Amino acid sequence: MGTILALFAVTTIITIIIIYILVIIMKSYPKLATYLETVGYVLLAISLAWTFLFSSIDNMSNETDMYVINEKLDTLWRANSKLQKALSNDDFTNLDDYTYELHSYWYRIEEDTKYFREQVSIAKIISAILLGFSTLLIACGRGQELLISLTSKKNE
């Protein structure tokens, strides 16, 4: 919970700094606000396309989780069966080898899905960045319009 709050605080501070820099730039170059807003809308369209394109990733992620659970359950059932046979026959000679194989297979199940999970997290980060920048740039363009309207009302 503390890391989430720290991440939120850092993100908020960075956003405020970027907005401040953009406001200073927009005061110097008022036409830039229109271009920034246009770029923001383009990034928003890309973000929406990215979201629709990779919405199936969440489904694939859930299916991967179900695969891992099923493989682990199958492994546990096989281990239980092997142990039951060993107990009924009083033959524990191969049980150590089987336990080692079971242990290595258990961790290989997770290892097989590691790269997919990394790709899912990268896709989510890219989506968040695109959406954040598009929102920021659109807000700056609209903010410039508000500044112009407020200054024109003051001058009247």
Describe what you observe in this structure:
- This protein has 156 residues and is mainly α.
- It has one domain (2-155).
- Helix content is 92%, strand content 0%.
- It has 5 helices and no strands.
- It has helices spanning 2-28, 32-53, 55-89, 95-112, 114-155.
- The chain is rod-shaped and about 100 Å long.
Tally the beta strands: 0
Distance between the termini: 51 Å
In DSSP terms, counting alpha (H) and pi (I) runs of 4 or more, how many helices? 5
**What is the molecular shape?**
rod-shaped
- Structural class by secondary-structure content: mainly alpha
Please compute the radius of gyration using only Cα atoms.
Answer: 28 Å
Residue windows where pLDDT falls under 50 for at least 5 positions: none
Identify the quaternary structure here: single chain
- Biggest sheet, open or closed, and with what strands and sense? none
Percentage of residues in DSSP E strands: under 5%
The helix content is over 70%
The overall pLDDT average reads: 80
Number of domains: 1
Q: Tell me the series of helices and strands, N- to C-terminal.
A: HHHHH
